[in-house]
Amino acid sequence: MFKPVSSKVDFPKLEEEVLKFWKENKIFEKSIENRPMDKTWTFLDGPPFVTGMPHYGSLLSSLPKDVFGRYWTMKGYRVRRVWGWDGHGLPIENKVENALGIKSKKEIEERVGIKKFIEECRRYVNEVSGEWEWYVDHIGRWTDFKNAYKTWDMPYMESVMWVFKQMYEKNLIYKGFRVMLYCPHCATPISNFETALDNSYKEVPDAATTYKYKLKDEKDTYILAWSTTPWNKIVTPALAVNPTLTYVKVRQGDEYYILAKSTLGMLKKDPKYEIIETFKGKPL
Question: Domains in the chain and their CATH numbers?
Answer without folding.
Answer: 11-176 (3.40.50.620), 209-280 (no CATH)
